[in-house]
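User: I want to check something. If I give you two sequences, will you return the structure for each one separately, not as a complex?

Assistant: Yes, each is folded on its own. Here is the first sequence with its structure:
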Amino acid sequence: MTDQKHVREDALAYYAQPGKLTDPGAYADALEGLPTEIGALVKVVQGVMLHIFWAEAYGVKLSEERKAEVGLRRVDRQLARILELDARPLTEPRPHGQKLVGNCRDFSVFTAAILRHQGIPARARCGFGTYFAPNHFEDHWVCEIWSAEQRRWILVDAQLDDLMLGVLKPDFDPLDVPRDRFIVGGKAWQLCRSGAANPDDFGIFDMHGLWFVRGDLIRDFLAFSKIEILPWDGGFGYLSHGGPEMTAVDGDFDVMDRIAALTLADDFDTLRALAESDPGFAVPTEW
């Protein structure tokens, strides 16, 4: 991995600005006056968002209409829905039934959007958490935030509120997740390709295997260019094929090996150039 203390200033400036999916647009005013201290900021995010898979733990039974809110890719649309449900400032926590329904990707992207609005470098990361079930790498997203004081990127799991912490009992601070507890997509790919880890231990529900790791690798790669697609997005480029039947001989593994190495090296110029030049990474424009 690259020496984080020597991350280029132009790269930090890039991640300190919103992307197409994290631009608050007409709802930018709603992000004014929010805390800059990460612990307090995460509390704000938790106060307006409810994880779809944990809703019943909070006493909320979601309708199909409410569940569909996880399909809101763009932060401006998320903000519109948050304020439609409850028009108060974001600093005022909502009752659980009036929070925006999201998932780990949404907690991470929304946190990154607020930080970018504040001029703080941040990016969503896709990979696998080791803290949801024993001997399992759970499909997951976190937010990676640049600490100017420490000169390093810090992983923050914004969805882990008091209830989840009580259930999961992680042995680390969710505001500084260790790199061996959240495995970024590129690292997961390399572990599986080298035989150091079993691909069947990576996934979610009944979906697992090297094809699944490949999907998270592509999502993590795209997030370096501030293209934070949904966890189930597919049907384009490299995500138009691949599934449980994928094997080493019919996959585009050379490309995957390359992007895994680039993300782990945080090779800013090459990452962005490849995302822009390779049509396999071109997402549908309507997104």
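And separately, the second sequence with its own structure:
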Amino acid sequence: MTVSHPIGSSAQTFGIVGGGIVGLAVARELLQRRPGASVVLLEKEPRLAAHQTGHNSGVVHAGIYYKPGSLKAKLCARGRDLLKEYAAEHHVPLLECGKLVVAVDSGELARFDALEKTARANGVPGLRRVDGAEAIREVEPNAAGVAALHSPATAITDYVGIAEAMGREIVAAGGEVLLGAEVAGIRRVPGGVELRAKGAAGEQARTVDHVVICGGLQSDRLGELVGGPAAPRIVPFRGEYMRVAAAKQELVRGMVYPVPDPRYPFLGVHFTRRVDGSLEVGPNAFLALSRDRYGRASFDPHDVRDTLGFGGFWSFARDNWRAGVTELRGVLSRHAYMRTAQRYVPAIGAADVVRAGLGLRAQALERDGSLVDDFVIHAADGVTSVRNAPSPAATSSLAIAEHIVDEVLGDR
């Protein structure tokens, strides 16, 4: 099928690639801004939210970690408020259970103080510093440490439920959501941009005025289909979770996090309450050998070649091999995994957890091996490509959508 309308006509047409929470939010925002527009969303999996959206910790971040003035900081602040309103409107559970970021000893206080400055510069609502073990226990009776940041506005939600609600809204507004439609080609043609997708019915083509690529773990490959830069390159990391036994899941009221190491892109293994009442520990972070498979031994030769063939990965590995060794111990041993977590909540150890789910994170690297920390969005000639949208992208999704649609429609 081929459908085309000239840009600027009353029947504008848009194609969204990716059925995670960011792609869904963009499609929804376009239909809200341009009622009657033709919007089609293509997702290669048979369901929405099949990857990062459906395999994360479910945290609605308050904005503690992000460089002041960055896109992450600005869009997280806007996005957390929009998301809370959205969850309430669509009856998706969202609980402000709060979070403690804990410094366990004096050696972490320099990083802790820097983190506090960042959080305050970002205007994290209700943030307060808690000094001393006794004061920490007033918030989390079983947590241990010398100082903590308490963020009562940090929340948990069901991101799959949010994504499914967005999907229903898109269809109700006249948009299309095509599942099992893997985009195999994107090219600029006279009158717009052609999308070619493979599915059960064979290959189909559709020409639209503008394409927005929200491909997550496939974002670099999809961007290159239409002439985007080869970097940043996605290197996948897997994160494993442990589920705490029912007998001890009430030992943590909300969330307990470590002070992150700014040299590494992850927040560290932490305790997180889920909206179903369960308590999980994790995720860790170790190199994944597949971008879309969730078994502990999953391996995809194409994905491995892409990672090992990228010079930036080797630079990153050289600079972070010690952290990699530590993470590998946790992958191989439940006791090693919990040894770090138990510093923060001593009463929960390896005997109190079982292996739970596994998630994959799209980490963007530059050619020199440096981490791409901020959201990265490229736009050129009818194609907008989200090249890097790690955490807090789920929290920020509705604000990211506003940002993208402002640019696409020229509404700034």
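Because they were folded independently, the notes below concern the second chain alone. The chain has three domains: 13-52+160-232+374-409, 99-152, 233-254+262-371. The longest strand covers residues 353-365.
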